[in-house]
Amino acid sequence: MASVNHFKGYDKISQSHLENQNPRPKTAARRSSAATTTIIVISAILLFTLVVALTLAVSMLKQPIQDNKHPVDSAESIRTVCNVTRYPESCLAALSSLNASKSGDPEAFLDLSLRISITRLSNLSSSLRSLNDLRPQPALKDCLTLFDDALSRLNDSVSATKAELGLTEEKMSDIQTWISAAMTDQDTCNDGLEEMGWTAGDEVKSQAQSFKESVSNSLAIVANMQNLEQKFGLTRH
Questions:
Q1: What is the four-CA torsion angle of 163, 169, 172, 176, rounded to 10 degrees?
Q2: What is the DSSP string of 95-109?
Q3: Distance CA 35, CA 56 (A)
Q4: CA separation (Å) from 152 to 78, 160, 165?
Q5: What is the model's pTM?
Q6: What is the pLDDT along the chain (237 residues), one digit of tens a residue?
Q7: How far apart are the C-alpha atoms of 101 and 237, rounded to whole Å?
């Protein structure tokens, strides 16, 4: 009987020992499940962060990054245009005095430059006409005829900038031809005056130089129109 009781006691110990061992697999399973959950959460956070970063990157790329390179106000626009001319200071003074276009359109600045040239040539022509009325000279009369032709060409150039279809490459070529012809008219006038030994007064000299600078600047603007439009972020017609 003692032997039987001994085995019974052993059986109780064995069962108690097994009962104490049974929870361990459950605890390990819980730990494994928790670790898996943590990994999933961390992965989800990393994925979300990556998606947000990519979204921001794409958004930044879609922004017009070239805007910082474009003129942002009237003063900067004028400087950009005048920098391509032979007489930038004269160009700046003339366009700024008119509080030039705020639209940031090089064609508008060309139009203004041409109008300034027309005004200055008209003033010069009026001065020579007054001198010719006082003391008629064949060279002065020739200059007046040449200036009438130059004014006609410059007015044609202004009309071309206002055409319905805009300033096409063909029209730009025409404007360059007309402006060049107006400059040639002035040179021919100067040559004729020099041949006759005529000396211009200070006022006439100043008017002649002002026109020379403005018409030269107009030619430079139209000759560099495509480059200017790129700087302004505009598309060619």
A1: -150
A2: HHHTT--SS--HHHH
A3: 32
A4: 26, 12, 22
A5: 0.69
A6: 444 444 444 444 444 444 454 545 555 555 566 667 777 767 777 777 777 677 666 555 554 444 445 655 678 899 999 999 999 999 999 998 876 555 568 999 999 999 999 999 999 999 999 999 988 989 999 999 999 999 999 999 999 998 777 789 999 999 999 999 999 999 999 999 999 888 888 999 999 999 999 999 999 999 999 999 999 887 665
A7: 20
